[in-house]
């Protein structure tokens, strides 16, 4: 592509600070920004990025659809919430306007195994209007591409174990609440841990009704199995609360989580496959206590047994950089809802991002 890539930012919260700056520093152009929060509407995006004014004012999300028809961006970055149901309308508007869209929404990475009906609707719209929808972020690379690459170095695998933790304070109120932060244990078990005793068959029926709320590893295991050519025969999840050992203040929730209440959760997903490889993957999202840091640990049982530890990953920044580095391949991808396990690996962009777009 011989010109700058034109990008619209939808959702101007904590993640947008990095997303927009990374786009600009990689030679892209932010041509519009939108949010539903009146606190940020009317601000210059430079204020969000903590840089000089950029002469792009954040507009109300109600103007998003009509403005896309005028702006005609190449890509929209959606950084709002964590489920396909939450971002469905913004993706639908992008697809109807023929605008490629990519989201930090965790379920968006591989929604086919948790929200198939909504994903099929978006896939159809995107194909009709010749654009691509997808999801990316930290899990895409550090729970996905990295794991597949390591698997390619092994002779035999019997089991893959993964555990990753992150501070919900870094991502905003919707994610913190989705992890049960601030709930009593009783509330947690009713609202978050409700699928703990469900079989794969029972969960499959809930998915068919469009009522399932997956943990992040639910979608990740689907992404990994498809990429590795594995056939899933069973998948279940358990969500366990992390209990506050003392009163701990959450700035994101603007409340003190009382001793004995929930700081967040561990979500453990177990997947078995026809090929004999089992996955047990865990994501830990909670309000951190003093001294706690992010972690990412994966191990392979087999020949040879292998493990990898990513020490203290900058999860927020890595999420944003991974997504921004995905923009060229998003533009190049075939129309539809195309998950990143069907795209080429990210490039490290030393040239302006438009020079990595291969399609004319």
TrEMBL record:
Domain 2,4-diaminopentanoate dehydrogenase C-terminal: 145-352
Keyword NADP attributed: yes
Matches recorded under Pfam families: DAP_DH_C, DapB_N
Coiled coil spans: none
Record GO biological process: lysine biosynthetic process via diaminopimelate
Domain Dihydrodipicolinate reductase N-terminal: 5-103
Highest taxon above the source species: Bacteria
GO molecular function list: 4-hydroxy-tetrahydrodipicolinate reductase
Keywords: NADP, Oxidoreductase
Keyword NADP (UniProt): yes
The name this protein goes by in its record: Dihydrodipicolinate reductase
